[in-house]
TrEMBL record:
EC number(s) from the headed UniProt entry: 5.2.1.8
Gene label: fkbP
Protein name (Swiss-Prot/TrEMBL): Peptidyl-prolyl cis-trans isomerase
Family label: Belongs to the FKBP-type PPIase family.
Pfam families: FKBP_C
Gene3D superfamilies documented for this protein: 3.10.50.40
GO molecular function ontology, one term from the record: peptidyl-prolyl cis-trans isomerase activity
PROSITE patterns: FKBP_PPIASE
Keywords: Isomerase, Rotamase
Length: 119
């Protein structure tokens, strides 16, 4: 699929994980604790600026779900291969409160995730 575009949201950031299917896939289903192969775009909710994109760094990546941020661990299971999902992840489910060990600490993050494979 083509690289998505995320418009800068209006209003305050949600405090709970938001899961929104953009395209519902019809392939294998991602399961808690499984492996996923994805393309994704991540932006800062407040600024709308991209902080990471597999489209910009040469291709998809494969991860074990247990090694990812909580927002992905809870937001990806149930997706089917071929699907595209938007997650809005509050800091507590991403990289923790401001002042943490990441430049993304304290930020609400938006991800568009294309599920390419799941097992």
């Amino acid at each position: 699929m083509e690289k998505p575009f995320i418009e800068k949201p209006e209003g305050p950031a949600p405090t709970d994980l938001v899961i929104e299917d953009i395209i519902v896939g019809d392939g294998a289903e991602a399961v808690p604790g499984g492996f996923v192969k994805v393309d994704y775009l991540g932006v800062d909710y407040e600024t709308g600026e991209t902080f990471d994109s597999t489209w910009d760094r040469g291709g998809p990546v494969e991860f074990p779900l247990p090694g990812l941020i909580q927002g992905w661990q809870e937001g990806i299971p149930g997706m089917r291969v071929g699907g595209r999902r938007k997650l809005i992840v509050p800091p507590e489910m991403a990289y923790g409160p401001a002042g943490g060990g990441s430049t993304l600490s304290g930020l609400t993050l938006i991800f568009i995730i294309d599920l390419l494979d799941a097992n």
